[in-house]
C-alpha cells in the first residue's frame, strides 16, 4: 500500500466493537451469556436512519469488507470492488455495516475468544452457531445502531444465504435483499466437500480435539488442506486453466513429489497464508453453519412457503461457471419467490471465474448491481 | 413518457391491480407504465443491455430464454401473459403459445402482420423477401424467423381451442383506418390479440 489511497476507496477504517450483556439463546439449545460483535461501517447514517446496508460475509470472510485498516495494508477489504464512493454499494448514499459473524475468528465472540465463565479460550467448547443465530445477533446490532429497517441486506455465497434468512425471518426489517452466488441449502456434494475439509482438520495430530491453543500449536496441515480443497471449489476448471494451465515452475518435469506445476505452488501458497489468518475451530463451525442452513426445513421442505413471509424486493445473481452454487441453485430461490408472487429480479452473469466471481469487478455484474442499488438509493432519499 | 402504440393497446386491456408476465419485455417500458396502476408482475428478457435498463427503472426482470419455455411459472399464475412483437422471433411459436396459455388466464399477443399488402407486393411482384419498417432486417440476418399473417395466427388459436376476446389491428402509425377495418389482413401492419383458453 502506498501512502495515497485510491479515490474510490472508503479510505482508512477502524473497526467498532459492540458488547452485548444479554444472553442469546442459540439454535443448538445452548445460551451465550454475553457476546461481542466486531464490525466496520462506511458512509454516513442519514437522519431518518433509512440508508443502512448490511453486508453478510462468506465462509472465510470477516468484518473488513472495504478500505484499509492501515496504510501498510497490502490489500483492501474483501469486497472493496463493490463498496465505496461511486461503486455498486455507493458509500456517498449508503451507510454500510459489516459485522464479523458470531463464531468467527476476527474479533466477534468465537472459539478464539475468552469464555467469561472459565477465563479460558472457548476453543472447541464454543457452541455451534447457525445462520439464524447470526441474524438474531446482528438484529441486536441493528437495534443498537437505531436501524429499524435495512435499506438492503447483501451477501454472496454463505453471506447470500444469511441475507435470504434475514428477509425470511425478519421481513419487516429488510427493504431489499441481494442474494449472490448462493443456494437455498447445501447439496449432498456440498456437504461432502465440507466433511472432507473437517476431516482434514480433525485428523491433524496438532488438532488436539480442538484444544491446540492450549498446546501452543496450530493444526497447520489440516487447516491448509481444508483451504486447498475449498479453493478448488471456488474456482472453475476454466479459470484454473487460464491462470496456470499445466505450467511448470522450473520449466521441466522433475520426476519427484515436490511442487512442480504452478497450480500446486499456488494452492500451497493459498493454504499457508490462510493458516496465518484463520482459526481451525472457526472453520469447522462455519462449515457446519453452511451444512445446517435450510430455511425450508420448518416449512415442510417447501421453499415457496418459506419465502412467503418475505416483504423485501429481491435481486438474485448467479455466475455461469460457478459449480459450487451453480445458477440452477439460485434458480431454486428465484422460482420459489416467483411462485410466492414476490418482487424478484434474476441475472445470470457470464463469468469464467467460478464461485469466486462474486468477489470480482466483472463489468456486467457491477452494472446490474449498481443499477439496482441506485434504485434503492432513490427510495431511501425519497 | 409515451408508450409504443401496441404497448398502449395492451395497457388499455389490462385492468388495475392485475398480475402480469411480460415475455421479451425489452427495457421494461410497459411494466413501468403498468406499475402506476398497481399492476404487478415480471418481465423476461435475455438481452443484457435491455435487462440492465429494466433493473435501472425498478422493473422486476428475470433473465431467461423464451425458447426454453416457462417451466419456472405455475399453471394459471398470471392474469395476463404478454408477448409483444416477439412471437415471430422464437424457435417454436406454437410451443410458447401453449406455455403462455398454461401460465396465464389470458394471453395478449402482438406481432407484425406478414399478410400486409406491402409484404405481399414485395414478394409477389418484386420477388424479394419483404423489408419494412416493422420488419427491417434482410432475410439472412433477421431475428424474425416465424412470420405469420392474421389468418395464420387465428387458425393456430382455433386449433388449440383458444377464443379471441379482442383484436386490435393498426398501421405502424398505430392508426386504425377504414381499410384496416375492412380488410385487416391486407392493410393491418401490427396485430394485437387478447386470447382466452376456451376450456375455462
Taken as a percent bin, the fraction of beta residues of chain A is: 5-15%
Helix and strand string of chain B, N-terminal first?
HEHEHEEHEHHEHHE
Query: How big is the Rg of chain B?
Result: 16 Å
Largest sheet of chain A: 8 strands, mixed
The percentage helix of chain A is 25-40%
Q: Average pLDDT across residues of chain A?
A: 96
Question: Which stretches of chain A are low in confidence, meaning pLDDT under 50 for 5 or more residues running?
Answer: none
- Element-by-element helix/strand order of chain A: EEEEEEEEHEHEHHHHHHEHEH
Distance linking N and C termini of chain B: 37 Å
Mean pLDDT of chain B comes to 92
Shape of chain A: globular
Report, as a whole number of angstroms, the end-to-end distance of chain A.
39 Å
Percent in helix of chain B: 25-40%
* Assembly of the depicted chains: heterodimer
Supply the number of helical segments of chain A: 10
Portion in strands of chain B: 15-25%
- Strand line-up in the sheet with most strands of chain B: 3-2-1-4-5-7-6
| Spatial shape of chain B | globular
Structural class by secondary-structure content of chain A: alpha/beta
Please name the two chains that share the biggest interface, counting residues whose Cβ lies under 8 Å from a Cβ on the partner chain: A-B, 22 and 21 residues
Amino acid at each position: 500500500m502506498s501512502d495515497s489511497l485510491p479515490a474510490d476507496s472508503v479510505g482508512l477504517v477502524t473497526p467498532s466493537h459492540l458488547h452485548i450483556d444479554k444472553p442469546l439463546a442459540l439454535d443448538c439449545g445452548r445460551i451465550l451469556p454475553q457476546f461481542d460483535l466486531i464490525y466496520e461501517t462506511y458512509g454516513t447514517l442519514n437522519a431518518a436512519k433509512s440508508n443502512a446496508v448490511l453486508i453478510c460475509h462468506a465462509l472465510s470472510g470477516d468484518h473488513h469488507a472495504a478500505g484499509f485498516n492501515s496504510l501498510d495494508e497490502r490489500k483492501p477489504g474483501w469486497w472493496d470492488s463493490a463498496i465505496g464512493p461511486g461503486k455498486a454499494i455507493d458509500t456517498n448514499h449508503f451507510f454500510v455495516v459489516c459485522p464479523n459473524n458470531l463464531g468467527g475468528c476476527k474479533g466477534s465472540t468465537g472459539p478464539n475468544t475468552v469464555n467469561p465463565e472459565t477465563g479460558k479460550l472457548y476453543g472447541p467448547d464454543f457452541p455451534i452457531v447457525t445462520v439464524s443465530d447470526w441474524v438474531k445477533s446482528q438484529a441486536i446490532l441493528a437495534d443498537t445502531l437505531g436501524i429499524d429497517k435495512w435499506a438492503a441486506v447483501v451477501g454472496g455465497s454463505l453471506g447470500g444465504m444469511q441475507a435470504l434468512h434475514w428477509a425470511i425471518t425478519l421481513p419487516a426489517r429488510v427493504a431489499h435483499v441481494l442474494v449472490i452466488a448462493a443456494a437455498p441449502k447445501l447439496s449432498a456434494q456440498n456437504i461432502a466437500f465440507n466433511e472432507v475439509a473437517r476431516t482434514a482438520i480433525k485428523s491433524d495430530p496438532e488438532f488436539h480435539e480442538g484444544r491446540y491453543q492450549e498446546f501452543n500449536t496450530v493444526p497447520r496441515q489440516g487447516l491448509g488442506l481444508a483451504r486447498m480443497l475449498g479453493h478448488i471449489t471456488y474456482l472453475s476448471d476454466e479459470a484454473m486453466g487460464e491462470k496456470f494451465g499445466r505450467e511448470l515452475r522450473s520449466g521441466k518435469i522433475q520426476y519427484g513429489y515436490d511442487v512442480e506445476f504452478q497450480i500446486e505452488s499456488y494452492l500451497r501458497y493459498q493454504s499457508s497464508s490462510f493458516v496465518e489468518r484463520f482459526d481451525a475451530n472457526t472453520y469447522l463451525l462455519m462449515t457446519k453453519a453452511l451444512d445446517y442452513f435450510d430455511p425450508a426445513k420448518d416449512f415442510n421442505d417447501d421453499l415457496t412457503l418459506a419465502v412467503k413471509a418475505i416483504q423485501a424486493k429481491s435481486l438474485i445473481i448467479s455466475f455461469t461457471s460457478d459449480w459450487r452454487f451453480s445458477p440452477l441453485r439460485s434458480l431454486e430461490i428465484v422460482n420459489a419467490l416467483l411462485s410466492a408472487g414476490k418482487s424478484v429480479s434474476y441475472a445470470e452473469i457470464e463469468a469464467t471465474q467460478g464461485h469466486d466471481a462474486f468477489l470480482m469487478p466483472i463489468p456486467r455484474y457491477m452494472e446490474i448491481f449498481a443499477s439496482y442499488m441506485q434504485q434503492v438509493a432513490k427510495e431511501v432519499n425519497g | 413518457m409515451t408508450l409504443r402504440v401496441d404497448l398502449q393497446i395492451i395497457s388499455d386491456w389490462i385492468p388495475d391491480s392485475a398480475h402480469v408476465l411480460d415475455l421479451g419485455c425489452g427495457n421494461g417500458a410497459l411494466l413501468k407504465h403498468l406499475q402506476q396502476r398497481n399492476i404487478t408482475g415480471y418481465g423476461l428478457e435475455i438481452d443484457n443491455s435491455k435487462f440492465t435498463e429494466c433493473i435501472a427503472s425498478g422493473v422486476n426482470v428475470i433473465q431467461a430464454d423464451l425458447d426454453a419455455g416457462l417451466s419456472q411459472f405455475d399453471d394459471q399464475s398470471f392474469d395476463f401473459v404478454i408477448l409483444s412483437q416477439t412471437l415471430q422471433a422464437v424457435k417454436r411459436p406454437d410451443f410458447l403459445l401453449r406455455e403462455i396459455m398454461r401460465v396465464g388466464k389470458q394471453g395478449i399477443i402482438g406481432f407484425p402482420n406478414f399478410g400486409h399488402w406491402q409484404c405481399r407486393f414485395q414478394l409477389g411482384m418484386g420477388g424479394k423477401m419483404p423489408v419494412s419498417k416493422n420488419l427491417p432486417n434482410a432475410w439472412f440476418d433477421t431475428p424474425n424467423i416465424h412470420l405469420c399473417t392474421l389468418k395464420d395466427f387465428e387458425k393456430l388459436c382455433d386449433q388449440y381451442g383458444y377464443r379471441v376476446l379482442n383484436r386490435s389491428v393498426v398501421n405502424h402509425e398505430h392508426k386504425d383506418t377504414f381499410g384496416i377495418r375492412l380488410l385487416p389482413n391486407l392493410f393491418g401492419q401490427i396485430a394485437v390479440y387478447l386470447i382466452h383458453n376456451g376450456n375455462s
